[in-house]
Amino acid sequence: MSVLESIHIDGVWRTAAADGTRKVLDPADATALAVVAEGDAADTDAAIAAARRAFDDGPWPHTPTAERAALLRRVADLLQRDREEIALTESRDTGKTLEEGRVDVDDVTNAFRYFADLVMNESGGRVVDAGSADVHSVVVHEPVGVCAMITPWNYPLLQASWKVAPALAAGNTFVIKPSEVTPLSTVHLVKLLVEAGLPTGVANIVTGAGDPVGARLSEHPDVDLISFTGGLVSGTKVAQAAAPTVKKVALELGGKNPNVVFADACATEEGFDTAVDQALNAAFIHSGQVCSAGARLIIEESVKDRFVAELASRAQRIRLGRGTEEGVECGPLVSQQQLEKTEAYVASALAEGAALRCGGERPKPSEVRPEGGYFYAPTVLDNCHRGMRVIREETFGPILTVESFSTEDEAVTLANDTEYGLAGAVFSGDTARARRVAARLRHGTVWINDFHPYLPQAEWGGFGKSGVGRELGPHGLAEYRETKHVYENLRPAPVRWFAG
């Protein structure tokens, strides 16, 4: 298998300077999908230098807004042209179903179109009333400069778009490092940026490990902003590395997301069915490998037993297999490491007193195809409590824990009892109660009677250890800008502050 030239620096596709390579594995059967270049600090320095030149001396930061927006729209069109190819790549690389891959491409397309529209609809700046007709005062926004982007393995193309689209809309240049586990769709995206006519040096990609590539991006003095999506431990290291150069830092570090279900949401058979179905979606989409997964079911005591029994019954019937196969509802975990982590979390929960309602093991060979993949059965753990590791930590696997409550205040206390604060949901047939509880939840996104949908025009990010900054929406664009106040004296005259 030949080595893919997956490093793009200053308009040239290349292999790694030190000839390093890495196999990209298909998580459904652990076979090699591709061999990509494994970059190092030297490749990273070269990419940063190219982005620096393109920003300081190139045309992109000064390109009219209409032209930047037009390029983003061309990229969106190219994404739709290659929709099936990219979706297949994403499915095979991450293990998710092909339909999920198609949805991802559509969401990425929408992100590029949204930021194109957003910058086109802006005015020339915010005029500030200085209290004098002799003064013209305006606040304007300029690009930050060279942006470093580090993206995760679960939604590689989607998370790349949330960074690349606003960065380009604002006039920045960038270096992106996709996860070494799932880099292929991001390589494709950079190729589309080049095809769309982005000037040389604006978009650079270095495939490789977090150390050294991500570490070098975080610490480099010529990087003006670092945007990272991933785990808390790695995100903390990024922030520490960035601190000495006082660069802008944006972090999305996952969550431990509550799904609060009140008994009144289950008062009718339709309501009960909907709440159970949404709990399944919340926990098991993409095998639970979602930063906003509703991995904590917090359910009112009076309906818990019936609800959990039905939930476990349906979870057992989720069809596992290769994501590209017809009828498959859930694919494998992304890697052997993630599979072993999932097993360890379940073992610790059972040792701490959780009751296993379904799953809790790798499926038997007769239950899933192909064999040899990183599959784990959707798992429901009942009778859980806050002292358990599986409740406190982000598991990133097909594990749903169950806690119960008796009062509204208790439900809110449980839902907020986490170091994270990315997302959460409330299911209730009482609109006033649902909105009241939503207002009390300390999470960046709160759904009412739904789970998982997001809008490119609405900000995404979390409270607490879920990170700092926001992606998407107007604030997602603002992350990639500096704010400047220009004060113009229209009738300059001596001040005479000093007599001499």
UniProtKB/TrEMBL annotation:
Keywords: NAD, Oxidoreductase. Pathway: Amine and polyamine biosynthesis; betaine biosynthesis via choline pathway; betaine from betaine aldehyde: step 1/1. The active site is at residue 252. Residues 14-486 form the Aldehyde dehydrogenase domain. It comes from the Bacteria. Pfam families: Aldedh. InterPro entries: Ald_DH/histidinol_DH, Ald_DH_C, Ald_DH_CS_CYS, Ald_DH_CS_GLU, Ald_DH_N, Aldehyde_DH_dom. PANTHER family: BETAINE ALDEHYDE DEHYDROGENASE, BETAINE ALDEHYDE DEHYDROGENASE-RELATED. Belongs to the aldehyde dehydrogenase family. This is Aldehyde dehydrogenase family protein.
